[in-house]
TrEMBL record:
Organism, as annotated: Leucobacter tardus
InterPro entries, per the entry: NAD(P)-bd_dom_sf, Sc_DH/Rdtase_CS, SDR_fam
Keywords, comma-separated and alphabetical: Oxidoreductase
Pfam families named among the record's database cross-references: adh_short (PF00106)
GO cellular component, one term: membrane
Family designation: Belongs to the short-chain dehydrogenases/reductases (SDR) family.
Gene3D superfamilies: NAD(P)-binding Rossmann-like Domain
SUPFAM superfamilies per record: NAD(P)-binding Rossmann-fold domains
A molecular function (GO) term: oxidoreductase activity
Keyword flag Oxidoreductase: yes
The protein's name: SDR family NAD(P)-dependent oxidoreductase
Domain of life: Bacteria
Amino acid sequence: MSYTALVTGASAGLGEEIARQLAALRVDLVLVARTERRLDAIAMQLRRSHGVSVEVLAADLSETSDLERVAARLADDDTPVDILVNNAGFGVLAPFERSDAEEERRLHEVLSWAPLRLSHAAIPGMLGRGRGWILNVASVAAFTPTGSYGAAKAAVVSLSRSLHARYADSGVHVTALCPGLLQTEFHERMGPHLPALSRLAFADTRRVAREGLRAVYRGSPVVSADWRYRVARPLTWILPDRLLERISAAGDHAPLAR
């Protein structure tokens, strides 16, 4: 039986790595990101390396028309999508009191509204086929007071838990993957605003992708990726919010977790 996965934010970082690991499993792909040129290059490489079908869908998920095009692709029963990976995201550098309201809107539309909308488009077909997997990339920031970024990621975790509880018995599994720091373009784009951190704080992107795919296959509603963040997560239950905020949002309050 062949499977097809749609991956958002697939042109770099964790999204690209998840797409590569799915291709290695002989899963056909629909790659979604804003930059069509980069998607085309990745698609060509994956077709040659793994012999899978790869479709490219350039879209900016903060734009309603683009988001609806992706939703329509997910709802197309003639070319069904079995696996949805909601990975697209970015961070707002400025502190909340100085941030641009339009950027805050875009942040929440990409980080929390887009996963909800795309899951809403995908689940009816998955239920009809009796199988489906949705991997929502959240963040360990969801468990800490990290401003609007953490709030958006907390919404993703809550949505994933709710959908998993509602649909797991029907064969549709939903998982929130919560990485910490990853050595990807997500943090490189923050440039000098990102505080100097030990490389020991960064998790391996390949391992995080692998853990996320295993978790959604096994039916885990939430997984904190990488052992160091699983060890640290209980601290979020006992440390004061003011201390957690200082640890989690250093520098210009840029989010320190994916």
